[in-house]
Design brief:
alpha/beta, Rossmann fold
Length: 173
């Protein structure tokens, strides 16, 4: 119990927070454009999320997931920090877990970390390519029941598991 006591008038009820939940942009950010980042920021503002968390993946994570070549982690992270500085009035954070670990981090571990670290409910913001990739993992069916998904991209060929859980995700507008 804290040592700070405060006096409040009889019948006082604290105000309910107007912003709830966390929007997490999970990607390598190698091919993510500023327009996609702006769309995520617009969703943050329109839906009154507490904050937008940009979660860049480490090179070893990207190589294991998709076999794509990417820039070093620090270069992609510096670009995100620069974009965040341009939007200083919004609650935007760049997550540094993968930079600290400096190795492959499974999406399950990343999601468990985000569940403990950030306010619920969690909304994952992914590109269509990353969403299809995540749907191919075995743990997808367990996690899609706990988080909501917002997909950025053009409607097209979607993974069968995404089609099965169509009620748990939507397209970014």
């Amino acid at each position: 119990m804290s040592g700070k006591y405060t006096n409040v008038p009889y019948g006082f009820e604290p105000a309910t927070p107007s912003r709830k939940g966390t929007l997490i942009f999970y990607d390598s950010f190698q091919h993510v454009t500023d327009e996609q980042l702006e769309r995520a920021a617009a969703i943050l503002d329109a839906r009154a999320f507490k904050q937008l968390v940009l979660y860049p993946l480490h090179e070893s994570t990207v190589k294991r997931m998709s076999r794509d070549a990417v820039q070093p982690f620090y270069q992609r992270q510096d670009r995100l920090h620069e974009w965040r500085r341009d939007h200083s009035l919004m609650a935007i954070r760049v997550e540094g877990l993968e930079g600290k670990r400096k190795k492959y981090t499974p999406i399950d571990s990343a999601l468990r970390h985000m569940q403990t670290e950030y306010a619920a409910p969690l909304f994952l913001y992914m590109t269509a390519k990353m969403a299809n990739l995540w749907a191919s993992f075995d743990s997808f069916t367990e996690w899609i029941k706990q988080v909501r998904l917002i997909i950025d991209g053009q409607p097209g060929e979607m993974h069968p598991k995404l089609e099965q859980y169509k009620h748990r995700w939507e397209w970014a507008v």
